[in-house]
């Protein structure tokens, strides 16, 4: 029987040059508990996780596993002590089967004993109450299926301690329910779980204890039952319980003023979209998007949302059908992405790291991306550095970006703070067509509200907005109509007030 914490941080700090990312944090995590780590963007959650999992070393302080002081020099060291992580970005090979992916990194080198491997996967899956087909191709699985493989891979390493980094953010409500049942079973096996999340509902639903981080410091740690949701919001935002909080924009109230146009800004007809591996993602999709409306595309990720947005952004070509953009003559795919941008299309991409930013460049340079034709920034082919820096400083202030300044490389910012800069850049210049793929994913509550308020504002000044989101709360808060992509089919479009979350949830689940 183990007494005392399985993992303890003792006065741990982490500096990056002059930036003190973590400041003297002490935490104890007990055996078999589910522990929530929460805080606003840039609060230090990922840095704590990276220290627990051996990715980085603390600058000061001690980490103990089962009372013994450890100094991890790599994730392999942490793994040897029973610490496993499931990251937000999965490292799976789409052309391999589930079993082959599972074998990568978990099976000994040499010939694969496929039937033994399949048995092992099924046994592990059954132990946490999930189903999985070991022979399925990973490329054919949706995001929930891929997450299952990552969790099973982590469990195959027989951890004592499992860290899940925002696991529910990408899931449909039904898949999130299944994930929470699996976590409950993992806990019953005596494994401790750390859950990093921005979703307070998940904290109250599944976690025993919670730690609130703010600006690199631990604000409070305690039993979840000691807190109400408003306490945690207040602690995350101000560091105090019961503080008067800034009021959130009331998204729906603005609907009545929406300047809805008659001619569609975007006209999609009989569209067929293929995935990178050639399989059909969506068959025969048609819809119009008017000025002054937000059309939400709901659905479990991997059902064609990525291909839809990339086709409209001019980044890939549809297999069949047509897309018309009212700002330009002819078929949209006959224009370059630059021409589309200049005509008023903006794009908040789903994959920020690949399509949204250049990690090694500064915030100012990243803000400039896509605005190189703008007279405020470039005159006679010369970049007006002062003006770019001034605008970036304003954006940092408006969006509350946690950074050392406009010249800091964006790769040094937390994920949520990088996303804020992308949003600011895409909202600049008042686009007439805005493609927003998961705009508030990874953002804290305050910034999600800010982003939703901005989407409403742009809709009300007449922008046409295509909002891809797996978050039904967000869709119900701001969208006018919704379509669901599931199993190569499109359901809707239907006005939000003519449907229910149950109906949309059922479509998402493929019913
Ligand atoms: N490599 C780095 N160099 C400099 N500063 C860094 C680096 N990595 C993180 N930081 C800083 O450390 C602080 C904490 O970042 P961290 O990623 O831990 O926040 P987070 O709570 O996980 O945020 P989010 O919710 O946005 O993911 C931020 O201010 C960030 O800018």
UniProtKB/TrEMBL annotation:
Q: Which SUPFAM superfamilies match?
A: P-loop containing nucleoside triphosphate hydrolases
- PROSITE patterns listed in its UniProt record: ABC_TRANSPORTER_1, ABC_TRANSPORTER_2
Query: In this protein, which residues make up the domain named ABC transporter?
Result: 7-240, 266-511
SMART domains referenced in this protein's UniProt entry, alphabetically: AAA
> What are the protein's GO molecular function terms?
ATP binding; ATP hydrolysis activity
Q: What InterPro entries does this protein's entry cite?
A: AAA+_ATPase, ABC_carbohydrate_import_ATPase, ABC_transporter-like_ATP-bd, ABC_transporter-like_CS, P-loop_NTPase
Q: Per UniProt, which keywords does this protein have?
A: ATP-binding, Nucleotide-binding
Say if the entry is tagged with keyword ATP-binding: yes
Family assignment from sequence similarity: Belongs to the ABC transporter superfamily.
Q: What's the protein called, per UniProt? A: Heme ABC transporter ATP-binding protein
Could you tell me which species this protein originates from? Pseudaminobacter soli
């Amino acid at each position: 029987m183990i007494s005392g914490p399985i993992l303890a941080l003792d006065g741990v700090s982490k500096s990056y040059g002059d930036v003190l990312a973590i400041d003297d944090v002490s935490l104890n995590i007990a055996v078999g508990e589910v522990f929530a780590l929460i805080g606003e963007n840039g609060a230090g959650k990922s840095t704590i996780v990276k220290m627990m999992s051996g990715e980085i070393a603390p600058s000061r302080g001690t980490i103990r596993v089962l009372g013994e002081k450890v100094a991890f020099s790599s994730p392999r060291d942490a793994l040897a002590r029973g610490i496993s992580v499931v990251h937000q970005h999965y490292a799976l090979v789409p052309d391999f089967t589930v079993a082959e992916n599972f074998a990568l990194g978990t099976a000994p080198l040499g010939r694969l004993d496929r039937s033994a491997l399949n048995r092992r996967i099924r046994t592990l899956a059954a132990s946490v109450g999930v189903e999985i087909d070991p022979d399925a191709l990973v490329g054919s699985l949706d995001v929930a299926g891929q997450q299952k493989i990552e969790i099973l891979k982590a469990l195959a390493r027989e951890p004592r301690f499992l860290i899940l980094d925002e696991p529910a953010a990408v899931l449909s409500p039904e898949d999130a329910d299944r994930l929470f049942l699996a976590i409950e079973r993992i806990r019953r096996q005596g494994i401790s779980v750390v859950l990093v999340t921005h979703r307070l509902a998940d904290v109250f639903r599944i976690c025993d204890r919670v730690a609130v981080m703010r600006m690199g410091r631990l604000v409070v740690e305690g039993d979840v039952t000691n807190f109400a949701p408003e306490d945690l919001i207040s602690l995350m935002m101000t560091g105090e319980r019961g503080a008067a909080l800034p009021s959130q924009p009331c998204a729906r109230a603005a609907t009545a003023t929406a300047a809805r146009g008659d001619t569609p800004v975007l006209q999609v007809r009989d569209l067929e979209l293929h995935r990178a591996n050639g399989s059909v993602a969506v068959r025969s999709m048609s819809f119009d998007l008017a000025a002054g409306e937000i059309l939400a595309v709901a659905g479990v990720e991997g059902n064609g949302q990525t291909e839809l947005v990339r086709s409209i952004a001019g980044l890939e070509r549809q297999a069949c059908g047509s897309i018309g953009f009212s700002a330009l003559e002819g078929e949209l795919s006959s224009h370059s992405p630059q021409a589309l941008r200049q005509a008023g299309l903006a794009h908040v991409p789903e994959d920020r790291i690949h399509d949204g930013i250049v990690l090694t460049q500064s915030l100012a340079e990243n803000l400039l991306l896509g605005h190189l034709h703008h007279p405020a920034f470039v005159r006679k082919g010369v970049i007006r550095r002062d003006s770019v820096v001034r605008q970036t400083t304003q954006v940092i202030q408006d969006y509350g970006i946690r950074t050392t300044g406009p010249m800091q490389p964006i790769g040094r910012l937390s994920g949520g703070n990088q996303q804020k800069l992308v949003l600011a850049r895409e909202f600049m210049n008042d686009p007439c067509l805005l493609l927003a793929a998961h705009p508030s994913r990874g953002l804290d509550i305050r910034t999600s509200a800010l982003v939703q308020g901005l989407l409403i504002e742009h809709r009300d000044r007449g922008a046409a907005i295509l909002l891809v989101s797996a978050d039904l709360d967000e869709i119900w808060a701001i969208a006018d109509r919704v379509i669901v992509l599931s199993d190569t089919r499109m359901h809707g479009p239907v006005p939000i007030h003519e449907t229910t979350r149950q109906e949309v949830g059922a479509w998402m689940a493929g019913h």
